Amino acid sequence: MNFRPLFQLAGKRQIYRVYISHTARSLAFSFVGVYIPIYFLTHGYNLNQVIGYYALLHGTGLLMALTVIPKLIQKFGLIRTFKINYFFEVLHLSLLFTLPFLPFSIYWIAPIAGIGVFLYWVPLNILLIKNADFDKMGTDLAMFFSLPKFFGIFGPLIGAGLVYFIGFWPTFLIALVGVLLSYLPLVGINTEDIRVTFHWKKAWQGLRKRKKLFFLESFDNILEESEWFWGIYVFLVIGSLAVPGIAGSLAAVGSALFALFVGKKVNQSPHNVVTITLFSLALIFLGQSLVENSLEAYVLSLAASFVFTAFLVAYTSIIYREVKGDNEEEFIILREVPTVLGRMIVFGSIILTATNPGVYFLVPMIVALVLMIWFVYKIRREQSVA
User: Fold this and answer.
1) Regarding predicted confidence, which is higher, 327 or 181?
2) 98, exposed or middle or buried, with CB in 10 Å at 0-12, 13-18, 19+?
3) Rounded to two decimals, what is the model's pTM?
4) Which residues make Cβ contacts (< 8 Å) with residue 249, sequence separation at least 6?
5) Which CATH number applies to 11-190+198-385: 3.40.50.620, 3.30.559.10, 3.40.190.80, 1.20.1250.20?
6) pLDDT at residue 91 in the model
């Protein structure tokens, strides 16, 4: 993969600026991301309360995505909407930094975090789908997913060291500074070229037309959010603050290396890549449900990172090719509904299995197998038509 275009900021493909900004932000959060829920657990909150925090976060974000964010993008454009996002993310990290001294619970922080997260990801996904090349979709998405991992390999490891030897506050400070710096690459994007208009009547028509895509989005997010829970589960099982960070760094290594090689393969046959990776993910989730020690956690983290990155690149390539050039802005907004629905299923399942959290990983295992069967059926049907 050629990294030279990333540093040619005057180049015609503005997606490179998006890559750099996203990479810088991801690098900042790599120091703290896996430790935010663990931070809550070590400050007197139980697992169900932490899950409630994230449910409120995503619920608030979805409400914003369906009501306020489209109006902001219409009025101010995508890049200016990013500016609003930075205010909420800085406020969120500042509140986490001072949490031990605050007179209120984490549930007051969750809506602020939710607004910040969705103000970031909704415009980012629109930027990505508008700037990605249809014929190079796999390569573009591989770079998008791999660069944050490549540059963030040591983030979780450094975060683990800081948390273990000093405490949580240095990681939040690093993330705070990194988030502010990540905006700089976006300054040069021509905002006049990426203003969008939303037509909700057409959007709901598109929802009916793309029912299968929205169904897939729910299932996909069950898998994605399960990877998020893995870091929490490792902490609960092993009880060490260092292990989640080490596991996170191993996951970054696997993701970065694998994504560099999977892009061209996805350009050729994304459905085959998705099918193979879904079967592999099912086996990995089964292994995660049985993990007992740090060595097993490290091996599974590395394996999951390889496979999950390949799945995300191929799956996202399929979805974006389906909608590119066909009211994609409305799709990006409305897909937050099945996205959050999938996450709520995850949160509910975690709460139901809180007494034995390893059992939870059987849920994404079943989902992966169901998705695999669906994609196999789709491939065979297309082959029979051809």
Assistant:
1) 181
2) exposed
3) 0.83
4) 153, 154, 155, 156, 157, 160
5) 1.20.1250.20
6) 92
